[in-house]
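Trying the structure run again after the queue cleared.
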Amino acid sequence: MEITWLGHACFALESGGYRVVLDPYTMDGYPPLHTHADAVYCSHGHHDHNYVEAVELSTGKQSPFTVEKVATFHDEKGGALRGGNTMHILRAEGLTVVHCGDLGHYPTPEQLAAIRGADALLIPVGGYYTIDAATAKKICDVAAPRVIVPMHYRHGSFGLREVGTLDAFVSLFPAAQVHRETGSRFTLTAASPSGVVVPAYGK
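Done. Tokens:
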């Protein structure tokens, strides 16, 4: 399975020529997003996660992915501040990828059980609007994904000014477990090594 980081919390997953895009955005801090997909999924209704107009959709292909949704919240007050959030669990090629969207709280035991043992966990780490680095690390310790992909953080001139950078998150792991990619795309297989994978934006 091919995974491409398109910036912010937006990713493309590809399997067997079928392409899924998650959480397309329009927002200050990133150039306009233009991409294509056979299907698009959004974690919630905010413009930096549900701008489906940025995705040119194809039709007619049969999806190799199964998709499960887990309802969560965008904040620590049961959605009173920012509403609901959906975590998407996608499976193909015998692999499981979890996209946490704008998860804003530590999950319940039932929610953790649903995502435990994933091959890849795409998780926000920047805080302010979502969980912060420390909470993301606690979730990863319990959910035990093989590969962790941080998202929703500020980097260089990109991202929301209010959120934190990647450093606070990756500093919680041994340096040998952090794998910084030279491009925005990487391949996930059953043999992929464990650790934190940091794709490079726009390369």
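The domain at 2-198 is CATH 3.60.15.10 (Metallo-beta-lactamase; Chain A). Worth checking whether this holds up in the mutant runs.
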